[in-house]
Amino acid sequence: MTLRRVNVIILVLLAVAFLIVVQRNLLNLSDFLHKENSDVGMILPFESELSPDLKLQLVRRGDAIPVVITAVEDRLGAVVAAMNSVYQNSKANVVFTVVTLNDTVSHLKEWLSDIRLKHVKYRIAVFNPDLLSGKISQDPQILEATKPLTFARYYLPAYIPEAEKAIYLDDDVIVQGDIQELFETSLRPGHAAAFSDDCDSASSKGIIRGAGTQNNYLGFLDFKKEAIKTLGMRANTCSFNPGVIVVNLTEWKNQNITQQLEHWMELNTKEDLYSKTLAESIITPPLLIVFYKRHSIVDPMWHVRHLGSTGAGNRYSAQFVKAAKLLHWNGHYKPWGRVSSFSDVWDKWFIDDPTGKFHPVRRHSGDR
Ligand SMILES: *[C@@H]1O[C@H](CO)[C@@H](O)[C@H](O)[C@H]1NC(C)=O
Ligand SMILES: *[C@@H]1O[C@H](CO)[C@@H](O)[C@H](O)[C@H]1NC(C)=O
Ligand SMILES: *[C@@H]1O[C@H](CO)[C@@H](O)[C@H](O)[C@H]1NC(C)=O
Ligand SMILES: *[C@@H]1O[C@H](CO)[C@@H](O)[C@H](O)[C@H]1NC(C)=O
């Protein structure tokens, strides 16, 4: 009698053990398949047939990696391609905060509902351009050239108030490495942000001297102005590019970085502090002042830039571009435009606009 009961118990235990083994193998299999497919940006063909438990596995757990990116209506394809590249190249729990203008929200939502992006976690934050009134020049010509959303990075804590650490990315980037690695960039105590230096090894490969590419403070700020002089900064200090930022939001808030940046924007409207030859974004000068000798460094391979500059991007070898963890098409020639270097790399991550409003230009150049 007792013996038989023991047998039953053993049988039950064996059955349970068997089920556990099967379950684990299935989980690993789905893990494996997902990984295999992520390279080409596809989802599992039979995903919807998995049991609810297995489906849960595809929902990424672990600590959230907050990524802030902006979505500009007339180049919405950029942010979609960038997000797709970040997501497909990582297994981390990436959570995007997409900052955009009110009028763009519905177009953006429709695009992000694409089947290839259906597991991407994101929320939309609406930028209020009134924030900038009195802080940027009212000169209509300058106003026209100023994209309000480029200032969103000055206000990072407002968009992700609960985060301690976060990443900011420009929309004209493609990420080829695992974003987890960028997130793990260490920030020195007392530093609110990390950037890539403009004289680092990767960046200097793309620089053509005298072709308008600036790499020191003199290229961004007018050192003849009293307000700049009194800061005692060295004009030949290497500048940095704010298209990729790793941020400690606690420090950012403690140091009132947003208010400091606003202060310099306002002062510039009165005293014209920026360099007359400023070729790049007016976003950069206030950041250079506020973070002078107070920022950490982003690995150069995590910000390979100038792909959109005249000729500069073409100087990179195909191997170098392949090895880059992040590619940035800063400059005039965007990868969705008619002429651009390495637009084939960008094309791999682009997803067609369901509303048909956005087209990479070159695809239609034959029609004209
Ligand atoms: C399943 O994968 C985990 C880690 O991903 C590993 O530790 C475990 O040994 C694997 N199990 C089997 C049965 O392959
Ligand atoms: C934002 O857009 C929605 C719908 O398009 C509209 O109802 C709302 O009034 C807009 N809000 C602002 C602040 O413009
Ligand atoms: C951010 O800064 C705060 C304040 O200095 C510090 O306590 C914290 O460890 C930092 N966090 C990270 C992730 O570096
Ligand atoms: C930041 O601003 C708050 C409130 O305006 C002020 O109390 C604090 O002293 C400021 N901190 C720094 C470091 O400027």
Automatic annotation (TrEMBL):
Kindly give the Gene3D superfamilies that the UniProt entry links to this protein.
Spore Coat Polysaccharide Biosynthesis Protein SpsA, Chain A
Citing just one GO molecular function, the answer is: UDP-glycosyltransferase activity
User: What keywords does the record list, in alphabetical order?
Assistant: Glycoprotein, Glycosyltransferase, Membrane, Signal-anchor, Transferase, Transmembrane, Transmembrane helix
Name of this protein: Glycosyltransferase 8 domain-containing protein 1
- GO CC annotations on file: Golgi apparatus; membrane
The answer to whether keyword Nuclease applies is: no
State the membrane topology: Single-pass type II membrane protein
**Record localization:** Membrane
Concerning Pfam families, the annotation shows: Glyco_transf_8 (PF01501)
Fetch the InterPro entries from UniProt. Glyco_trans_8, Glycosyltrans_8_dom-fam, Nucleotide-diphossugar_trans
Report whether Lipoprotein shows up as a keyword of the record: no
- Would you identify the family this protein belongs to, as annotated? Belongs to the glycosyltransferase 8 family.
